[in-house]
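Glyoxalase
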Amino acid sequence: MGFHDEGSTYVAHVTIKVANLARSLTFYQEIIGFNVLEETERTAVLTADGRTPLLSLQVPIQAEEKRKEPQGFYHFALLLPERKDLGDFIYHLAEYGIEIGAADHLVSEAIYLSDPDGNGIELYRDRPSTDWRWEGKSICSHGNGPAPLRNNSAMTGTWTGLPKDTVMGHIHLHVAHLEEARTFYTKGLGFKVVNEYGGQALFLSTGGYHHHIGLNTWSGVGAPKPAPNSAGLDSFLLRYPTIEERNQAVQRLKELGSTIEENEDQAITFDPSGNQVILSS
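Predicted structure tokens:
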């Protein structure tokens, strides 16, 4: 998976807020197929391979159920290694009676569901990048076409949890103002816009991927931020190829006026819509 390794800048880890840790752990282990790497009274770190943190759960003080807040978290997306993995996962969800959405995005096949707090989740598999179609610098990735895995030969019915090679494929956010977000994520963080959708959404990546980050104003321009103790996004971590590249991004963000908290290993900032971004290398 060359778009999610040391050669690219990518989303490596996401932390979400949940209202009830025990309930969420049951869902993320039994339904999604994660393993628990670490657990405390109010937090849990989840992994697919037993070593690499992909998703963390956090219970805020006086936690609230997720409201339909217009700004902030839309979904995180787990990238599965093979088409059969997605087929087996669909079969597994059907056994549990889980309601899903599905789409063929030309570059990928995806299914969508929500956790018990309403946090959005996508699981998808990529088509070979040699089959992706580009028009200039814009990737063609938003046809809805037939639902994924119409060919049932991709389903074996042998789901045993997330494959060890599962990675955090991308994150998608609601933002208040698209142009402010564009400046932050391109001129600051260093991503390139690879698709613009109807003047309401941007898809950004590094290394020629179809997208590592999605941004949209589908819930309204200028929308307010969610309550800090509401279920939803806490933060996401961007992995830069080198310390130098991370430091260059930090400097660009400072020049844009962003506030940065720096320590030896990480730099922490917030995008213009208040989403917490952690820069690592």
